[in-house]
Amino acid sequence: MTYLQLAACFLAAAAVCGIALTVASRRRGPRPVAVGLTILALFLLTAVFDTVMIATGLFHYSPAHLLGLHIGLAPIEDFAYPLAGALLLPPLWTALRARRRARAHPGEGDGEERA
Fold first, then answer.
1. Is 0.90 surpassed by the pTM of this model?
2. Which of 22, 64, 77, 95 is the residue whose CA sits 20 to 30 A from 30?
3. Are 104 and 96 in contact (CB under 8 A)?
């Protein structure tokens, strides 16, 4: 299995889970501009820190399993993981906050009236 195939599987799983959480929470998903800025920041950090770590010899990749595209020294496949995090974590955060709010205030939003 190549790094690209592994990254695609991970990214697909994160995207499916993120969509499922958004649908299940019955709430509006995260704001696209915020997600876009998050992705941009994470890509920049990934490019910088992966380049530094690869340059210092902390790890290396087998060239036979890489697509061959790099940003700095970081292979393009490394950018799937921050992308997956940016797609999965905001809906997960929203779902967990809604769950905590529902536990703290039972009966709200289910049609019950309070005295």
1. no
2. 77
3. no
